[in-house]
Design brief:
Length: 541
């Protein structure tokens, strides 16, 4: 699982399956930023769709009427709000004030019957409600199993598809395994050109409907396209994914056959509704991060800022000011190099009252419907960089078992507060050690990206992921009040050996993160989205 898949699952408005929960937790064990989001996630209130829903008449003012209806429903039902937006969330319903042709748009009531509604991606739900999905019917039956496609929502370059795999009225395969060989998903245009899909994702709902989404190359926005599913096997365990007894549900047996389903679609409707607002702002931070904000793009399923950023040459060189022990060996591990090359910045969108309506560290933003005719302010909240570090802690496991052990390194005070052994759930023959580290770092030092375990001149583990026990709000307040950052990590050392118990071990932090909060010195500028009547697409974009 990568971070994109993690955020997609975290955005689901349905309960996650045991498999999905295990996958999310496994990823969070190895990714500190995702772990922080997992722990700080706010509980969401579901929208009661059983309430009475007024119907809007189909007319020239169709879209504006729908907007008013939905806003009224949201006020009445207290549509969920979140104080903290997760990285990677994308917005829904932003560009819908651009009227979609009335002849092509379903009625408001029909929208709410969309197969995409409530339980898949929130942004896709809204786009489907607004009439940007297409109801299609294509199916094929073999071995008494029917593969059928029911709905498709194209929003270049991504396509969302609702489908079913059924036998005797029951779901046989909750999620297709697309491997590009026996099970293929591809697209053709009217000239017969074939396009392979990329970045395939998917999920299931509480109904019999399954979902898949994929990315196509740019440049197909004005072509008539056909989606093809060419499937040779369904069911069975997923290849490359370990099956955990007691955690995973045994799938239906693998069945071989041949299912071919093709349905037409185009990006025309979403392309017509896409709006680009030029911004063209640039800034280089005091820490050497150059940021360029090109434009704001509003589509049926996302609101996206055109952002690019890079470090200045001086800032790039700062990453290598020190050389950790074992670095010649550690740099061969792509995970260490990946961590070293990470950099990010958090930006916010603030409304005219000063309230933050979005904060994220990617170019995509969860905004709901953009407030038409109002001003929002882009504001740089903080930036962070990773650098090499020579931070080292020496300890004996037996000492930590007896009680907390206090250590000091690099101006930071640490305490090894607990140490325990537990069996590895995925490999019962292996024992893992779980240790909790607490400490206080002077700002702008922010966190240890991961740890390394050594014994003397020998590396024992060249990448130990950490789970954080602090949250962003606590950290920010601590920096404001004390200039220091509290930290609490849980380290899971896999393959712990009994003979290490009374040996001196070293925990090394080869990569450390620095973060700079800008507060009142933040770079900012206004962004204004005109009323819908004045909106026009940029030419040639």
């Amino acid at each position: 699982m990568n971070c994109t898949d993690f955020h997609r699952l975290m955005d689901e408005e349905r309960p996650l399956t045991k498999r999905e929960l295990a996958t999310v937790e496994q990823h969070a064990d190895s990714c500190l930023s995702c772990a922080a989001l997992l722990e700080s996630d706010d509980e969401a209130n579901e929208w009661d769709i059983g309430q009475d829903m007024p119907e809007a008449a189909l007319s020239e003012g169709f879209t504006d009427n729908v907007m008013q209806e939905i806003l009224a429903l949201e006020d009445a039902s207290q549509r969920r709000r979140r104080r903290h937006k997760r990285v990677g969330l994308i917005a829904a319903g932003i560009a819908f004030t651009v009227t979609v042709g009335a002849a092509a748009s379903p009625t408001f009531a029909e929208m709410l019957k969309s197969l995409f509604g409530y339980g898949y991606y929130v942004n896709v739900d809204h786009a489907a409600e607004m009439g940007f999905s297409e109801r299609v019917e294509g199916s094929d039956t073999d071995q008494r199993i029917t593969l059928s496609i029911h709905e498709i929502l194209p929003d270049s370059p991504r396509v969302y598809v609702a489908y079913q795999i059924m036998r005797d009225g029951k779901v046989y395969e909750p999620m297709l395994q697309i491997d590009g060989k026996r099970n293929r998903l591809y697209v053709t245009d009217e000239d017969g050109n074939e396009y392979e899909v990329d970045s395939i994702g998917g999920g299931t709902s509480d109904t019999t409907i399954s979902y898949i989404n994929f990315k196509l190359p740019y440049g197909l926005e004005h072509k008539q396209l056909t989606l093809h599913m060419d499937i040779l096997e369904v069911g069975g365990r997923r290849e490359g994914v370990p099956f955990i007894e007691g955690l995973d549900k045994e799938p239906n047996p693998k069945v071989e056959g041949h299912w071919q389903v093709s349905v037409p679609f185009s990006f025309a409707k979403s392309t017509e509704a896409t709006i680009r607002i030029p911004i063209d702002r640039s800034y280089t931070t005091p820490q050497g991060l150059s940021i360029n904000v090109r434009n704001l793009v509003l589509t049926p399923t996302k609101t996206q800022l055109g952002l690019s950023h890079q470090l200045t040459e001086e800032a790039e060189q700062r990453k290598y000011r020190v050389k950790p022990l074992f670095w010649n060996e550690l740099q061969k591990d792509e995970r260490n190099m990946y961590e070293l090359n990470q950099r990010t910045f958090m930006w916010q969108l603030v409304d005219e009252s000063g309230a933050v309506v979005n904060d994220t560290s990617t170019s995509s933003a969860q905004l709901g419907r953009w407030p038409q005719g109002q001003k929002l302010t882009f504001r740089l909240d903080y930036e962070e960089h990773n650098e090499l570090s020579d931070l080292s802690l020496t300890f004996r496991p037996a000492d930590v078992r007896k009680g907390p052990v206090k250590l000091k390194a690099g101006g930071t005070e640490f305490m090894l507060s607990s140490f325990k052994l537990e069996p590895d759930l995925r490999d019962p023959s292996q024992t893992n050690a779980v240790m909790v580290i607490e400490g206080v770092m002077p700002a702008p030092l922010y966190r240890v990206a991961h740890w390394v375990l050594a014994q003397g001149s020998e590396l024992k583990a060249n990448f130990i992921s950490v789970g954080t026990k602090t949250n962003e709000y606590e950290i920010r307040e601590a920096v404001r009040n004390t200039g220091k950052i509290p930290l609490k990590y849980e380290l899971r050392i896999k393959g712990y050996e009994a003979e290490w118990e009374n040996e001196e071990l070293q925990l090394l932090a080869p990569v450390i993160t620095t973060r700079y909060y800008y507060e009142d010195d933040a770079w900012s500028f206004p962004i204004e989205v005109p009323p819908s009547s004045g909106m026009k697409q940029e030419e040639g974009k």
